[in-house]
Design a protein that fits this description.
Strand content: 25-35%
Strand order of the largest sheet: 3-9-10-16-13-12-11
Helix content: 25-40%
Distance between the termini: 24 Å
Radius of gyration: 26 Å
Number of helices: 16
Length: 479
């Protein structure tokens, strides 16, 4: 873990963004709780996603499906038989790794050493292994032939590669028989597919149309580390877009463009984003790209765009016996729609925004730690300060705070020097600070300070909300 990443993890706990779950009992690995500021950041991201996907498209409807589903759902989707990760253990350190990611790390190290020819050779072997009939053996053979050592112990002493199913199983009802097994959903998509006709009919939708959902998913990740990047309980923001067979490529490219733009609109620098095409397609897909972000821990996926063909609806039709076809009244055609999926990890998006916003800047000989969030995403939009705790200034500041809290979250602070209060607000990403001083009592104006430029202007206290909204709409990210 890099120094910058460790600082972000530390700040997240210290300032109330993210806590280790069950920390008083020593914590539970790969599970986290969102604190007072973290939950605001998370909700702001969710709302921006919902606005972009549902409110701005008249052919996309929302859904909130149950976490527990009929167990046959996961048989039809292929998860019971094929939802596996190839894992390998270092016998010395006892640390377990994803075999494919271990090889990818080795390829990256070769490229950093300028050995592109060797990296290309191993990369091709990895692609072949991922598509091999016996994937586990093929991956193991690469690790052995290349003598890839453990990143933790530096030793070359591995177990064989084995496949692990990632679904959590539990029992439904009082009797724990074989027929009572159900699963915590490993993805939110299947709740959308089984509700295809329910949503289509009640929302009066015609193909092409989409169904959007934000919700919890659960995976028994064997290698769960790197803070909230990989967790066992996480949230997804997904939209399944149903199209006529043959129209999926056009829709796929359309949603690729829209989803990349959404990340840019959230203040992510273009240089920190890239597309990654899948070397091995999932059993249901005919095209798949990931949006990757350059975290302090390297390039990692934050969202996947997949062309899922008709695999899911066809599978549910076969296993349920219910007709999943769509009747097109314009052409009198009947068909099972193809699907284009956009699936973003909410927690990963939050982590990306924290990493993107984090800055250390030299200001008058001191280091300023600041989170340069897009103002619309920032948990606290404005800090409200009385210059001193007397002369009626706190009363005026509280009145301004009450007005602003009708629109967004604010924080009132009257402790310490104003400069210290600015630093506290900078560290949690508050874009604007409003100070009530002696001049306010004379002419009704206040000082408003911008986080990024640290510039200050005086405006009438009655115009603060309008001023902030105008700046939020006009905000653009800096380097």
């Amino acid at each position: 873990m890099t120094d910058v990443f460790e600082k972000i993890v530390s700040l997240s706990k210290r300032r109330g963004f993210i806590f280790q779950s069950s920390e008083v009992y020593g914590g539970l690995a790969a599970t986290y709780d969102y604190g007072p500021l973290g939950v605001e950041l998370k909700r702001n991201v969710m709302q921006r996603w919902w606005n972009a996907m549902v409110y701005r498209h008249d052919n996309v409807a929302g859904l909130d499906a149950a976490i527990l589903m009929h167990p046959t759902v996961w048989k039809a989707s292929g998860h019971v038989d094929a939802f596996n990760d190839p894992m390998i253990d270092d016998k010395v350190s006892k640390v377990r790794y994803r075999a494919d990611q271990l090889i990818e790390g080795y390829i990256d190290r070769l490229r950093k050493k300028g050995k592109d020819g060797e990296a290309d050779r191993v990369y091709q072997a990895l692609v072949d292994a991922l598509n091999a009939e016996d994937q586990a053996k093929a991956l193991y053979d690469i690790i052995m032939s290349e003598e890839i050592k453990s990143p933790d112990s530096g030793m070359f002493d591995w177990t064989e590669v084995r496949q692990f199913n990632l679904m959590f199983a539990t029992k439904l009802g009082a009797l724990a028989g074989a027929d009572s097994t159900v699963y915590l959903r490993p993805e939110t998509a299947q709740g959308i597919f089984v509700n295809f006709h329910n949503v289509r009919e009640t929302a009066r939708m015609a193909v092409p149309f989409g169904i959007a959902q934000i919700g919890k998913a659960f995976r028994n990740e064997i290698v769960a580390r790197q803070f909230i990047f990989r967790m066992r309980e996480f949230e997804q923001m997904e939209m399944q877009y149903f199209v006529k067979p043959g129209a999926q490529k056009e829709a796929f490219e359309e949603w690729r463009a829209k989803r990349m733009q959404w990340h840019l609109d959230n203040g992510i620098r273009p240089s920190k984003l890239r597309w990654h095409e899948h070397e091995k397609l999932a059993h249901y897909a005919d095209a798949a790209f990931d949006v990757q972000y350059e975290f302090p821990i390297g390039w990692q996926e934050v969202e996947g765009i997949h062309s899922r063909t008709d695999f899911d609806l066809k599978g549910h039709q076969e296993h349920s016996g219910k007709n999943m076809q769509y009747f097109d009244p314009q052409t009198n055609d009947r068909y099972i729609p193809y699907v284009v999926e956009t699936s973003a990890g909410l927690d990963r998006t939050v982590l990306m925004l924290l990493c993107e916003a984090y800055r250390e800047e030299e200001v008058e000989g001191e280091t300023r730690v600041v989170l340069k969030f897009h103002p619309s995403i920032a948990p606290v939009k404005a800090g409200i300060f009385p210059l001193v705790k007397k002369d009626g200034m706190p009363e005026v500041a509280h009145a301004i705070e009450a007005d602003l809290r009708q629109h967004f979250l604010t924080e009132y602070d009257e402790k310490g020097a104003v400069g210290r209060r600015y630093r506290r607000m900078d560290e949690v990403g508050t874009p604007y600070c409003v100070t009530v001083d002696g001049e306010t009592l004379e002419n009704g104006t206040v000082t408003v300070r911008e986080r990024d430029s640290m510039q200050q202007v005086r405006i009438d206290k009655s115009q603060v909300a309008t001023w902030i909204f105008d700046r939020m709409r006009a905000w653009t990210p800096g380097e």
